Amino acid sequence: MLCLAQFLDAFNNSALFSAIPTLEVSMGMTESQSTWIISAFKLTFASFLLISGRISDVYNPKSAFIGGVSGLGVISLCAGFVNDTIPVIILRALSGIASSMTIPSALTLLVDVFPEPLEQARAIGLFGGCGGVANASWFPFIVLGLMIGAMFVEWASYHWVFEISKTTDNFEPAVAKWKSLDLIGVSILTVALILFIFAVTSGSTDGWASAIVLVPLIISILMVIGFFYWETLIPVDKAAIPPRTWFYHNFSILFAVALSPNLWWSTVFTIFTTLWQTVFEWSVISSAVHMFPIGIMSFAMSFTGSLSRIFSPKWIILTGLSFCMVATVLLALGGGNPQDYWSYIFPAFVLGSAGAMLTYTHTNIAIFQAAPSSMVGTVGAIFNGALQFGSAIGLAGVSSIETSVEAIHGGSHEYYGRAAAFWFLFAVVSILFISVSIFYDRSTDHIPQPKHGNPVDPAQLSTHLDENLHDANMTMTVVNEQADLADLPV
């Protein structure tokens, strides 16, 4: 059931890639409006992940999961009957909020069900293989979502793309256990993320120097700084993201790596669905079928979770990033003609999707092993937020580069702008490859994740050394008490 919900989250995002051209024609959308059909979901999904993760940690995660799935079903049902642009965008934004409630809660339940590290690694890998974030983030079944969406658009109506997402709305909510939340902190960060993603999404269409981009961008940065300052002022058991979270072993570098998988997949889907349908005039079904290598290889790589107990995640992540680098070079060198598919695009899809899924799966496993078990919901939110931020920020940069190059090199029907976008993507992945090579510390590989006695105190103990020191102090206390008793007169 958890994997099914993950699949539906991915479907909710991926299926509309096929529907965008039809929506533009039937609703008379502008380019910026069609962009927001996808971006509205990403904006709210990424922005509300933190509060969802916090709810999953301090409330009953089952209730959060049921509420998210139920809300997604109702909203998707309503979207299937809408024929106007603005209501569709609003409902897409609301579906992002509902979807954000399912991922951290599902991960919390998953880790509870599979506490043993090897089983947990396999479960997390399969969970990622079943859909979207990241997310997110966009995993192997995104191609199946793309294919199903294409079938609905080609042979029925784009309305059915929304209708399919309501099929799991059949649960009875449980009563949540009420506990305190860092409402001020999560509210500050949620608003900041909404403004930030809005700014970077609008930059490619409205111009980076426009007030509608600069004002929310500056405000969001100031609010993020304010959020981290606020987190230092409150007790760690109340903080949404305690400052010491970023100092867990490899946590920061794993967060940075999590920016890349969705960026790679989203760039590929965005560029080639537009190129194939608009320039090559391929049908929606044909475009989706040509994406199948991505889904097949990604799903196959989702079963590699157990490798993280044999090899260091560092080497597996580096292997995945190297595959992405080779694939991105192939896409930059060829792809502007239909006959380039088998010589350039097909091998790039195979290598790139395998690499992106390896990177996603083992970064996901490693980041859960690095953080305390009581922070599963929050860590899941941070990880999936990184998947979404990487996609949103990267796509804004890719779109700007592609548009600026096309303006001076033959327009949108030429491949120069798309090639430049792939070279930018190659540079991003290369920087991450170098960063992992330098900063990833293998000394904590295969060490069981730290556990905290208080489930709502996510940063009470930050390392295994703290736990060992605590145990040693308790032992010494017992020894001293016994020694005192031995000195008592008979």
Q: How do the strands and helices of this protein lay out in sequence?
A:
Elements: H1 2-27, H2 31-47, H3 49-58, H4 61-79, H5 85-100, H6 102-113, H7 117-129, H8 141-155, H9 159-163, H10 183-206, H11 211-233, H12 251-257, H13 260-279, H14 284-290, H15 292-301, H16 313-333, H17 341-370, H18 376-406, H19 416-439, H20 464-487
Helix pairs in contact: 1-2, 1-6, 1-8, 2-5, 2-10, 2-18, 3-4, 3-6, 3-18, 4-5, 4-6, 6-18, 7-17, 8-14, 8-15, 10-11, 10-18, 12-17, 12-19, 13-17, 13-18, 13-19, 15-17, 16-17, 16-19, 18-19
What does this structure look like?
- With about 500 residues, the chain is mainly alpha-helical.
- The chain contains 20 helices and no strands.
- Helix 16 (about 315-335) packs antiparallel against helix 17.
- The radius of gyration is 23 Å and the shape is globular.
